[in-house]
């Protein structure tokens, strides 16, 4: 039985996509969905600690966003943006080029440290060094395409979670942007376990689903790793009947991929859409996503079609801020 994309659509009024984060990370609004009670409550993110219990486990994605947008100059004098997506070997990368006008073999130079690059194809660039620090030192944080403003210095901090550690993403695990070190300390003092996974988020997370039959969509491949310490924390929590709360769709994909594919690391193209049988998580912290995207379908599969439509209707009615720098949702 096919699952129709149009059944999970919604209209987002203009102006609802947050262009800047709140001044304080935990000052965002929090929409709480209780699946058992079929209820929706409106809170502030600072209130989230009250929904956790001793023995719960909060799972965070500790990936760090790379400064993957580089701006260079061709020998003709033309400017070129190179968005590094994935390292292919020691000094070549899969990339996006803008503008798309270039010649194969053309050289690009960058002001500052002698860095040069050769354009090998429409989606591959080769640098004159394999020193990643030298390459990314000249880069800028790659804000999502729906952020319609120039990158600012503050984005280096605010588009990273406070617990970002492992370099590798081109997009932030934005559900975690609301957490402060203080809120994490509060949860620990309450007896909540804090555990980490690594999922390096790729550019495909922004791509809309184009197939009306959702099952025809092909997910992008992403690397994930669940360390032994996290596996043990989750195992112990399960034995004691504690809940597993995933922060973000990326953490959810990692945990569900591990549960279903019986491995703790590697590349996965797991696609979670309505009808999916969750095995690894009990609750979810997430932001508000665009319709027709894979993160939205994941949340829809966890919450159900009727409840997600009502949650988003209320969020729009009450003026919630959407997407990466927007407000938060807790599903229990």
Structure, explained:
This protein is α/β, with parallel strands linked by helices and 332 residues long. It folds into 2 domains: 5-65 and 154-331, 3-Layer(aba) Sandwich (QueA-like), CATH 3.40.1780; 69-136, Beta Barrel (Thrombin, subunit H), CATH 2.40.10.240. 20% of the residues lie in helices and 27% in strands. The strands form 3 sheets. It has a 9-stranded mixed beta sheet. Strands 5-6-7-10-9-8 form a 6-stranded antiparallel beta barrel. A hairpin with a 4-residue loop joins strand 6 (79-87) and strand 7 (92-98). Helix 6 packs across helix 7 (305-317). It is globular, with a radius of gyration of 20 Å. The model has no long low-confidence stretch (mean pLDDT 95).
Number of helices: 7
Order of helices and strands: EEEEEEEEEEHHEHEEHEHEEHHE
For the secondary structure, the number of strands is: 17
Distance between the termini: 28 Å
CATH topology of the largest domain: QueA-like
How much strand content do the residues show?
25-35%
Give the domain tally: 2
CATH architecture of the largest domain: 3-Layer(aba) Sandwich
Helix content: 10-25%
Q: Mean of the pLDDT scores?
A: 95
Q: Major β-sheet, in short?
A: 9 strands, mixed
- How are the strands of the biggest sheet laid out side by side? 2-1-17-16-14-3-12-13-15
- Estimated structural class: alpha/beta
Low-confidence stretches: none
- Please tell me what the overall shape is: globular
The CATH class name of the largest domain reads Alpha Beta
> CATH superfamily membership of the largest domain, which one?
QueA-like
If you compute it from the alpha carbons, what radius of gyration comes out, rounded to the nearest whole angstrom?
20 Å
């Amino acid at each position: 039985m096919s699952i129709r994309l149009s059944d999970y659509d919604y209209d987002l009024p203009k102006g609802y996509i947050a262009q800047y984060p709140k001044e304080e990370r935990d000052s965002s609004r929090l929409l709480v969905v209780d699946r058992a009670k079929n209820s929706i409550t409106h809170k502030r993110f600072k209130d989230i600690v009250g929904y956790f219990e001793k023995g719960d486990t909060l799972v965070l994605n500790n990936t760090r966003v790379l400064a993957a947008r580089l701006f260079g100059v061709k020998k003709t004098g033309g400017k070129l943006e190179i968005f590094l997506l994935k390292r292919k070997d020691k000094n070549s990368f899969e990339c996006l080029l803008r503008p798309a006008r270039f010649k194969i073999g053309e050289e690009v130079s960058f002001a500052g440290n002698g860095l040069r690059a050769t354009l090998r194809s429409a989606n591959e660039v080769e640098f004159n060094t394999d020193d990643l620090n030298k390459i990314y030192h000249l880069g800028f944080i790659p804000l999502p395409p729906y952020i319609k403003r120039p990158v600012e210095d503050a984005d280096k901090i605010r588009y990273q979670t406070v617990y970002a550690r492992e370099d590798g993403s081109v997009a932030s695990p934005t559900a975690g942007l609301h957490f402060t070190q203080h809120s994490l300390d509060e949860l620990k003092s309450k007896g909540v376990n804090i555990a980490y996974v690594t999922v390096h988020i790729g550019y495909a997370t922004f791509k809309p689903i184009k197939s009306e039959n959702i099952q025809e969509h092909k997910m992008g491949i992403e690397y994930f790793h669940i360390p032994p310490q996290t596996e043990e924390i989750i195992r112990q929590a399960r034995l004691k009947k504690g809940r597993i709360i995933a922060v973000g769709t990326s953490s959810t994909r990692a945990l569900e991929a591990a549960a279903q594919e019986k491995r703790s690391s590697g590349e996965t193209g797991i696609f979670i859409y309505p009808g999916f049988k969750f095995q690894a998580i009990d609750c979810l912290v997430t932001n508000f996503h665009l319709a027709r995207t894979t993160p939205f379908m994941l949340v829809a599969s966890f919450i159900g079609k009727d409840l997600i439509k009502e949650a988003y209707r209320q969020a729009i009615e009450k003026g919630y801020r959407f997407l990466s720098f927007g407000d938060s949702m807790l599903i229990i």
